[in-house]
Amino acid sequence: MPSRRGAATANPKSGEEMEPFPQPTPQIREVPATTPFVAPEELARRVGRTSLVRIGANESSFGPSPRAIEAMRDSLALTSYYGDPESFELRTALAARHGCAIDNLVVGAGIDDLLGLIVRTYAARGDVALMSHGSYATFTYHVVGYGLTLATVPPFEDGAIDVDALAAAAVERRPKIVYLANPDNPSGTLVDRDAVARLRAALPPQTLFVLDEAYADFVAPGALPPDGVDARTIRLRTFSKAHGLAGARIAYAIAAPEVIATFQKVRLHFGVSRAAQAGALASLGDPAFIAEVVAEVARGRDEYRALAARHGLRALPSHTNFVCIEVGTRAQAEAMVHGLLERGVFVRKPGAPPIDGFIRVTIGTPEERALFAEAFDAVLETLREPVR
Amino acid sequence: MPSRRGAATANPKSGEEMEPFPQPTPQIREVPATTPFVAPEELARRVGRTSLVRIGANESSFGPSPRAIEAMRDSLALTSYYGDPESFELRTALAARHGCAIDNLVVGAGIDDLLGLIVRTYAARGDVALMSHGSYATFTYHVVGYGLTLATVPPFEDGAIDVDALAAAAVERRPKIVYLANPDNPSGTLVDRDAVARLRAALPPQTLFVLDEAYADFVAPGALPPDGVDARTIRLRTFSKAHGLAGARIAYAIAAPEVIATFQKVRLHFGVSRAAQAGALASLGDPAFIAEVVAEVARGRDEYRALAARHGLRALPSHTNFVCIEVGTRAQAEAMVHGLLERGVFVRKPGAPPIDGFIRVTIGTPEERALFAEAFDAVLETLREPVR
């Protein structure tokens, strides 16, 4: 038998001649096997626990609005019907909220879904995508997954994004996409609206500006750019954070109608669940609940900062529902994450310098914050090396 | 200012010089603006109705299992937490059901989601994908969306898929993917297990065999291939049909571990909602409910066939929760769909010959079936041309 290209697999039962099997595309073969985020369920299994204090994924510890829960509950009997692929009611409500047309909006199954759609439609293999080093890992995941070339600029020593370095790199590298998470994840830091405008103005004409505003609800009024988009800016918002609907998978993009029409050509039309659409619409109608969540999150940030200060550790300024707290070296921060996990507390940590010696802790309920503080103190004691 | 490549947009406020804006990739620019399926919500808006008798999208008129509804309801308070990206519990239950390992399984947000993942990972621009002409439109949508070359073979005159023609075309065209919906949508016809095996055996070694078994629950025991996959077959199953969870978006693929590992490298890890996972797991635990749905669907198929026979019209043999009923010419079938819609009844029709003179009607409840029969009779009267 002539040799054939492709890997081979044996038939264990019959011992028959090995047969080649289909291979992924050359581009997909190049993609390494990575997982941007290991789930708390998996971490709990690894340490033999059935549940964890879940303050590692920036989920809301305050749940969805009761109105959202009610709307989702009411929708369940109709779960056998697909959700509206146009999300017409939700887009109508969002258009009113943002002062745009429904043609400026597309709804997706989370910002991760929308980021994949953006990368797929606007950047081909070998195109450059530019971001701040160590910023949101799932954007990087899509950049690698679609075979783009990743370019990064380092953030400042305090974790803040260096907008002017991004602008300079954009002029030099002429990327297809510039990605800015604002507020940033995992640092929690904010780039103010003037700096965002400066970056936008500096971008080459062919560059798409992706503004991931997942944590917008936690930002002080007036600090983010005003509503509105130009022809090459995409703003992303989600119901996963302050709205407490992460488990429902729903987010949206605001962009020029030409950009939305491009997504429309290839997006998964029936990808957003019926319950998610009902929950998001109801949640938009409960601003008082969101305001309460935001206020409690602000209290939690103060507590975490006080905890860090009590140990003489830095905490990064945060405009989100999480805080990065310094531990020491990268190894010490990893030991802290592991030590907390063994004590039943799930947190994560930034992977990239200069903040890889920090842990990233979501604002929990007062009870969760107390459990975290206790465990943090205990693990800190066990770290061999003196911190700072 | 030198001319720059790319389309231009005017700034309506300032009248400033026009500025180019970012363009989609060349491959995406080639994709036409199409929508595989217009939603019933949109159709209702077009005819000024707030609701329709919804028997056009092969959703289940019998809802989800009460156990699934209860499980989803219980999950709602935890909607602020992401669903398990590994769907560990569900995959464990599915592995037991299908006699495979959890490494043979990946869960996605519907078969449409999984089809996109398959096309993206295994076929590059210009590769050939082969299917029966007029079969499931969303596979075609992904084939076009990823820039593949679509090859088709015509079905038989009665709408049944010509497996031997597919096999011959596969040998000739050496496609990267052969897609078989079995039972087929929109025809509802079944290819028996021996013919499936014959097709599989004839495929060139580098061809991936995608077996879309969305309607498997409605097929008589023993008619589909037995559980199990080889290294180049992917079987797709969904909770959208007999399980009544279309609105929750959940389905799965069964494939070799190497194939699953490839998906794992680029899939949307947090793409399946928490409620969907809870509902699917509970639904698997209620086989009696599924058996009732399947029995009622069989009764409904008999009713639709009797309705067709009463008018001297053909109905295609169906192994699904829908039946294709002959109307006459393509134009007459289109007029029937439109006439039914004006009477508040949503059905669809196959787009491709030889069955484009048929409408495709989902098995509704007894009440929905009666409303459909009444409207069908009335619209048939209005069609100018005598039918057959």
In short:
Two copies of one chain form a homodimer. With 388 residues, chain A is of the alpha/beta class. The first copy, chain A, is 39% helix and 13% strand.
Note the main attributes of this structure.
homodimer, 388 residues, alpha/beta, seven-stranded mixed sheet, two-stranded antiparallel sheet, 13 helices, 13 strands, disordered N terminus
Largest interface: A-B, 94 and 93 residues
**Total number of helices of chain A:** 13
What helical percentage do the residues of chain A reach? 25-40%
Overall body shape of chain A: globular
Beta-strand residue percentage of chain A = 5-15%
Low-confidence stretches of chain A: 1-17
Cα distance, first to last residue of chain A?
66 Å
Give a count of the beta strands of chain A, DSSP E runs of length 2 or more: 13
Order of helices and strands of chain A: EEHHEHHEHEHEHEHEEEHHHEHEEH
Q: If strands are numbered along the chain, what order do they take across the biggest sheet of chain A?
A: 4-10-9-8-7-5-6
Would you mind describing this structure in some detail?
Two copies of one chain form a homodimer. With 388 residues, chain A is of the alpha/beta class. The first copy, chain A, is 39% helix and 13% strand. The first copy, chain A, is built from 13 helices and 13 strands. Chain A has helices spanning 26-30, 40-46, 66-75, 88-98, 111-122, 137-145, 163-173, 193-202, 257-266, 274-284, 287-310, 330-342, 366-382, and strands at 8-9, 19-20, 53-54, 105-108, 128-132, 149-153, 177-181, 208-212, 233-238, 251-254, 322-326, 345-346, 358-362. Mean pLDDT of chain A is 93; it is low at 1-17.
